[in-house]
Amino acid sequence: MNKHSPTPDAGAAARAVGVPPAWLELAAGAVVLVFVLAALHGALAWPLAAAGLALAVYAAMAGLVWRYWPDATRGLGPANHVTLLRGSLVAVLAGALAGFPALVGHAGWLAALALAALALDGVDGWAARRWRCASDFGARFDMELDAFLILVLCGLLLVLGKAGAWVLAIGAMRYVFVVAMAAWPWLEAPLPERWRRKAVCVWQVASLLLCLLPQVGSALAGGLLGLALVLLGWSFAVDVRWLYRHRLRS
């Protein structure tokens, strides 16, 4: 998922060599997800409610991909395949929200799934560069999946009792910012690159993942997550201030 959309000629060439259209790849992803959920149900007694919600989340994601993919007769490409795989893992994690209290004893498995999803985060970019299949769609798909994963991790920490409802503010802050753009269009202006934004993001994700581990108690989790929320709020405030001061130039 990256910066340059494939040309119509590339799409025609893909069809000529039998690359499956996007809807077939999305359907194949659903089949794979069903097998994964069946394996989890058999090995870990994964609740059916959790499996059902995971499938619903995947269906919503696939629907959005189908809606915004520019050419449904063309395959998604290697980079988007990786992101779709990561999306399937995120769907399993999101589905787990409907599996409590039965999944309380499987926090280690949830942390492992989250780690796998995070590990794939850089693979799609590598695949896009390797096979030259970068696109604006891919970059947006990757970014939105990152934001949703963070919100899901916040929800899991809430139901695990690692933090109170305030932890949801970490995942919701980006969505609040997007909604605010409707009232204040100057918030949509591009921001300059800053190491501060990347550092806060790394701390945020690392804290969420670490706090999922069964060995991390609620007291330590509260401290780590509280600091993550403070840093994230500060980072957003700095960006909003910069956008406000430069609003007349946009």
UniProtKB/TrEMBL annotation:
Keyword DNA repair: no
GO cellular component annotations of the record: membrane
Bilayer-spanning residue ranges: 22-41, 48-69, 89-120, 141-160, 223-244
Keyword RNA-binding carried by entry: no
One GO biological process term: phospholipid biosynthetic process
Domain of life assignment: Bacteria
Gene Ontology molecular function: any one: phosphotransferase activity, for other substituted phosphate groups
Any one Pfam family match given in the protein's UniProt record, by short name: CDP-OH_P_transf
Alphabetized UniProt keyword annotations: Membrane, Transferase, Transmembrane, Transmembrane helix
Family statement drawn from the similarity comment of this UniProt entry: Belongs to the CDP-alcohol phosphatidyltransferase class-I family.
Protein name: CDP-alcohol phosphatidyltransferase
